[in-house]
Amino acid sequence: MIKLKDCDTLQEFSFEFNNWISCSEVNQDGMVELPAIRPDIVPLSENVYKLKITTGDLPCAETSAEVSVMLIGEWGDSGHRCLTKPLNSGEPFRRGQTDEFELRLLNLGRVSHLLLGHGEHGRGKGWFAAQVTVNFAGPNGDQMEAIFPCNRWLDSGVDDRKTLREFPAMGTVALKEVVSPERRETSDGKWTVHIKMAASEKLDISKGLDSARQGISLVAYGTEGITGPVELGKDMTGKFEPGQTEMFKGVQLGHVGDLTKIRVSSGLEGDPSACWAVEEVLMLNEMSKERLKFDFSGCIGQCGGDVRKERPVVRPGTIVPPLVTYTVRVDTEDVADGGTSARVYVTLYGSQGDSGRRLLHTTAGIMPFGQGQKQSFSIEAVDLGDLEKVVVTKGPGDPWMLNQMVVKAGQFGPVEHTFIWSK
């Protein structure tokens, strides 16, 4: 038994176990969690967390390092847990392999983040983590699955040389709500779309509300096509109030196959006061009854930036593409009158889709496309795969002589794609 006493309130806590503490397949660290027993709350119950960790199918992606994970939920975290003995036989973390682990922990509530890493350095110790899924019992006993796209190196000699990273959940799905591929094929393309706005305390009302009232639009990508932009509630008085959820029935997205991602637009491009206020988008297919949830809570309160945000569709049993921040460097020719003050837009195209048209914006007072200037921008999009081309659009204003664009996936992306124009 362990007893703790709060020195401020003088309240005492007793922790009883009365059993052996030993290492096993589900307790590889020999750690035990004990709930606090107190009269004013129900003690936390034990929950089983089943992890599936996929190593990327890349050269040198596998590792012999000791990998650890920390699950972070609404009621606490698991602490760092070593993952040395998978439930499936064989060596863990081999190239292209998915390994399963099981952790018995006090209930963490909804798992929102995880820390994944290892503490070893040197040749052969690096690892490319593709994806982690965490299966656990929800508050009503229903099985839930949180999906964490990773797609990053944990290597002291690659990328930014970090061997410990934090990944947010791209989404959490109730397994009982999963719709089979055969049932999804019955879709007639009509969806009910719910737009949940952030509560007033999460954003600047004077900015976020005005941005939303400019209208919200949706672009849907599927395995067989693209639909949009579809306008939702544009110029409708009283729509998109803070903390409210607005419903739009019969939104026709057409026959685009299985949805793969959406892009939501809220606010006017280039408006420095545009403030992101969309917290969540929930889509229900009116025929197949498939429910898709897209979480934008991490963007709430972002002002003066990109008014277009993308999220992938999250389905259990599939590899979910991660969000990638593309670095775009624009080089203007160093010739007389080669610069422009006009707005410039770019669309990135890759083997897995496109980014949609994005405004290349900077902070107020900066002219990014001046004569001989090199300016970098960031575009966040669902992973586009291998980049193939860019489409550049100049708005009204002075002529502009573009030299080239250099694009790479992430600040430390290993490959730079150069698109030369010089006209």
TrEMBL record:
It comes from the Eukaryota. Residues 47-168, 324-423 form the PLAT domain. InterPro entries: Inner_ear_hair_cell_LOXHD, PLAT/LH2_dom, PLAT/LH2_dom_sf. This is Lipoxygenase-like protein domain-containing protein 1. It comes from Elysia marginata. The lineage of its organism: Eukaryota, Metazoa, Spiralia, Lophotrochozoa, Mollusca.
